[in-house]
Amino acid sequence: MTNPTDGKFDVILKAAIEVISEKGLDKSSISEIVKLAGVAQGTFYLYFKSKKDLIPAIADKLLAITLADVKVKTEQKETFWEKLDVLIDETFQTTNTHQDIIVLVYSGLAVHHSLEKWEAVYQPYYDWFEQVMREAIENEEIIDSIHVGWTARSLINMIENAAERYYIGYEQDEELAVYRAELFHFIKRSLERL
Amino acid sequence: MTNPTDGKFDVILKAAIEVISEKGLDKSSISEIVKLAGVAQGTFYLYFKSKKDLIPAIADKLLAITLADVKVKTEQKETFWEKLDVLIDETFQTTNTHQDIIVLVYSGLAVHHSLEKWEAVYQPYYDWFEQVMREAIENEEIIDSIHVGWTARSLINMIENAAERYYIGYEQDEELAVYRAELFHFIKRSLERL
Amino acid sequence: MTNPTDGKFDVILKAAIEVISEKGLDKSSISEIVKLAGVAQGTFYLYFKSKKDLIPAIADKLLAITLADVKVKTEQKETFWEKLDVLIDETFQTTNTHQDIIVLVYSGLAVHHSLEKWEAVYQPYYDWFEQVMREAIENEEIIDSIHVGWTARSLINMIENAAERYYIGYEQDEELAVYRAELFHFIKRSLERL
Amino acid sequence: MTNPTDGKFDVILKAAIEVISEKGLDKSSISEIVKLAGVAQGTFYLYFKSKKDLIPAIADKLLAITLADVKVKTEQKETFWEKLDVLIDETFQTTNTHQDIIVLVYSGLAVHHSLEKWEAVYQPYYDWFEQVMREAIENEEIIDSIHVGWTARSLINMIENAAERYYIGYEQDEELAVYRAELFHFIKRSLERL
DNA sequence: GATGAATGAGCTTTCATTCAT
DNA sequence: CATGAATGAAAGCTCATTCAT
């Protein structure tokens, strides 16, 4: 009857991601989530204090997956520019796959005043990219007159934003490759050490 | 009692902005909005088709104000770089003043699947900035090997994002001036024609 | 369609009394009350702030009816002892008719920590009986060495209690007349001026 | 870890009294009670058939304690009037100490339709006081023309009621001594054999 | 006996929307 | 145009109770 991966927490979280992806947080009901998860209404509250407790849990899961992926794929790359390319690639892919959940995470965190948690969730991502940038500075690939913390955050945001603009809704009047190239070169022009 | 500018539409919109700024869209009720506006419950539906009709209206109003302001202030400036500086300045100021409503507009548009309207709302803003960039290209202030449409959108997003990261929540561990300088130079390095 | 006595407040209150009489406050659901009242769920909350808002309203209504009745019937009586007899009679009758609601009022007020309201509700009743006792003292029917306020409250309680013990549950192993006589004489022996 | 007197029944009952005293029966949850008792959720149902099974058990315990106390203290007294004085004293003290639980017992028994049990619970109390009254009649301290059963119940109720009126809520505008004297003399006037 | 995770019916309350006046 | 009482669907959440271990 029970299945090794059947931690109820994960079952519920998975169902929640699925339902919320489709309808958004506010239109999604706990009852629909538990129905899909195959557990009772009350069981939800054994694992989550309330409905909005879902948001950080979802964000956590999503970012953890993405970061793990990015780390694996960038490890094999030598130069900063190759790594940046991987980052752009992964971000576009993740954004495409998880469009709705990303919107949820963005807006959910914002709307439900859990901004403090947002930073905590993103911190490992930022840390990793700051480290990548520091190495690039040491290797004299990029200029050293930048504020690494700020730039890391700005780049991650810029990349995510570009991906979102492309996939989530509106700007598909050009080739994906053109967009990605534009993005890559915009950054490269700004950071490259000549 | 009534005031010449008191078109009910504007009265309701103003009340809506106030209430929603404080509590977010989903926690705000029509009944609270109409109470603050001093009109009857039913009157709301004479001017707005439904609750979520408010979001684009609010976004519209906010962007219109900001854009008008930016236009006035940039007209007096000669160079692209001065205009960019004004744009950054205005964006930071608006973000600071209207934090909550900006979050609302972002997430509201996203969550409530009115993404199509988003583009329409932002279009005049993009149009204006594209024009500014084209003039800068003609004046040989910035490089001409860019996709103007994409870059205009990316810059506006980048600037807004930086402002949001600064004000809405988390990154105030540095001087505002440092942040703004970092942003300005990041862009300048990428676009400047040497 | 509408009926002159159809103040929704009264319709709901009447339905509430009926339902709660049968099942007690906690077992009664708003949905059952509004169904019986023939109004919508939301309408209830137009007239009552919450479920427990019902208790004082019910108590008020019940006591007002009883007191009005007692006043009318005692006015025709000359002596204190005749009035006391009427009071006993009315109390027993009301208790018999409204058994469940009396239990509700007692326990509801107690349980839901609205004890302050209890006094307010009973005050007119106490006032009236104090006045009756003062006249009896003036007419030298009863002794004057009593604390009128305390005695009025105690007698009303004693009479209600006797009625409740008789009707609400347990002590019907004797004739009603015997009980009432016992009660009447217990009081008379204590108060009569010889 | 376990304590010889820690029969689970008593542990749970004690926890229940504590929790219910504070929040009332309906606001108290089994889960809170078992948490305080330090036993598992299911253990509760090994000792009590259901939640409302608690009420008679609590009432039983409380009355047993009070009656034992009253018995001890009255045994040393000679006359009926001295014993009555002790009874009044004890009742006021118990009422003061156990205000909330008394309210619960009263209203709980009433509301939850376990009125049959009420009589069973009170029976030993009534029996004892009837016996005291019979002795007083034999000793020609009080009149013999009374219905002993009815009078015993009425007096116990009257005394409890007076105490409740004094402590639970409202009537503290006079000295306690005045109230108690008024009560004592009201009864004495009615019963004393001259 | 003891456990405590799981259950699921059922609750109060909210609120966008309608419509007779 | 304006009103606001009425609607009723739908939501989040609680908790007494069960039962496999």
Automatic annotation (TrEMBL), chains A, B, C, D:
What molecular function terms (GO) are annotated for this protein? DNA binding
DNA-binding region(s), chain positions = 29-48
- So which domain of life are we looking at? Bacteria
UniProt keywords (A-Z) are:
DNA-binding
Q: HTH tetR-type domain spans which residues? A: 6-66
Q: Does the keyword DNA-binding apply?
A: yes
UniProt cross-references to Pfam families, sorted A to Z: TetR_C_26, TetR_N
Protein name stated in the entry: TetR family transcriptional regulator
